């Protein structure tokens, strides 16, 4: 019997026929539906909680500011005592300063020297800026009209005691830590850090120094571990597994004990040595495999001993892209911070491309001086230098698109995925 080969397409990125490709949005919604927060809670000092996720609404224990106070250095008095035009008021002895309240009340028709942050003494509701005054130390003179309450801060004008200051599920940033501290919270209840296992697979990966051209360095593992750490999770290095189904299964068993989610890279496709996808299909509970996305189409999503596994493709560009697009929202959901999609913005294209229908594409991109998106010269999935050259992605929709200079495209900076910007 003679063999009848298919028509040569010679397009390694064309979506092979006879496969049910899962659209990106479908894969994302399946992933979202299959996950829920898995981490316990703990109480910790606010000062150490940056990057952690609130497990309970943070309620103000005191108001900010806790008392009405002066917003500037100047002179304070009761507004009702003022006349039209120039006012000359006698000064009381002493002054009101931050941390050194004025003892006593300021009599009607008098003024007091007051500094920024000082509690308004009884008899003072308005402050005039010292630059607008003349004073000989006994009296102070200034021109009206002055608005009642000017240059003062009301009690609780920022946040009132008892108010929810920061909602449950928020990831704490430095300003959050400042607010919680100002509101008298010294401890917060947060979720424990999500543990994320990272496993590389492949006989070609050098253990230590590469001994020949058949060996390559394991670039994915440090990249994935540092992404995980940068997002505030606990990276768990699960090492390297050879191309052996039994050994990969043992590494996954171990990983499922040590981590709340496992990222593997390599062996996700359907070749002779692609053991990860086979294992996940045969022994895991596969939710999606083969996504209509470029790069990253062999991505496999499954459960192993009850722990979610994302079987990332081995090509570093595909592994990186799938981690940002699929793993990031999944980790956030598991960690208690909810499901979040990155914010992109529409910019003009500074490139041309005819895009086929049937898959989503993420091009390595950066903005030029005019704010238009240029893309890396090669779409090769092993070109790590393109990830370094880029500052983000251009995300092209599942439909066909003919892009010329100026066509509006969606640009998503790396920073929208929570990556530190360069420089
Ligand atoms: N006949 C077909 N071949 C391939 C297809 C296909 O549909 N038909 N898909 C291609 C696409 S797209 C991708 S992506 C890759 C993904 O394959 P795997 O996930 O099975 O990955 P591997 O074959 O194990 O590795 C791919 C590539 O990446 C290198 N690699 C692997 N691990 C690492 C690591 N930790 N650090 C750096 N580089 C790594 C590996 O050596 C390979 O060169 O399959 C295509 N093939
Ligand atoms: O899509 Mo593969 O993920 O290009 O290299």
TrEMBL record:
Q: Which GO terms describe its cellular component?
A: cytosol
Q: A GO BP term, please?
A: Mo-molybdopterin cofactor biosynthetic process
Give cofactor(s), names only: Mg(2+)
Q: Which domain of life is it from?
A: Bacteria
InterPro entries per UniProt: MoaB/Mog-like_dom_sf (IPR036425), MoaB/Mog_dom (IPR001453), MoCF_biosynth_CS (IPR008284), MoeA-like (IPR038987), MoeA_C_domain_IV (IPR005111), MoeA_C_domain_IV_sf (IPR036688), MoeA_linker/N (IPR005110), MoeA_linker/N_sf (IPR036135)
**What does the record give under GO molecular function?**
metal ion binding; molybdopterin molybdotransferase activity
MoaB/Mog domain location: 197-333
What are its E.C. numbers?
Answer: 2.10.1.1
To which pathway does this protein belong?
Cofactor biosynthesis; molybdopterin biosynthesis
Q: Which catalysed reactions does the entry list for this protein?
A: adenylyl-molybdopterin + molybdate = Mo-molybdopterin + AMP + H(+)
Q: Does the keyword Metal-binding apply?
A: yes
Supply the Pfam families for this chain.
MoCF_biosynth (PF00994), MoeA_C (PF03454), MoeA_N (PF03453)
Q: Which UniProt keywords apply?
A: Magnesium, Metal-binding, Molybdenum, Molybdenum cofactor biosynthesis, Transferase
Give the enzyme class.
transferase
The family classification in the record reads: Belongs to the MoeA family.
| PANTHER family, sorted | GEPHYRIN (PTHR10192:SF5), MOLYBDOPTERIN BIOSYNTHESIS PROTEIN (PTHR10192)
Function in brief: Catalyzes the insertion of molybdate into adenylated molybdopterin with the concomitant release of AMP.
Specify the protein name: Molybdopterin molybdenumtransferase
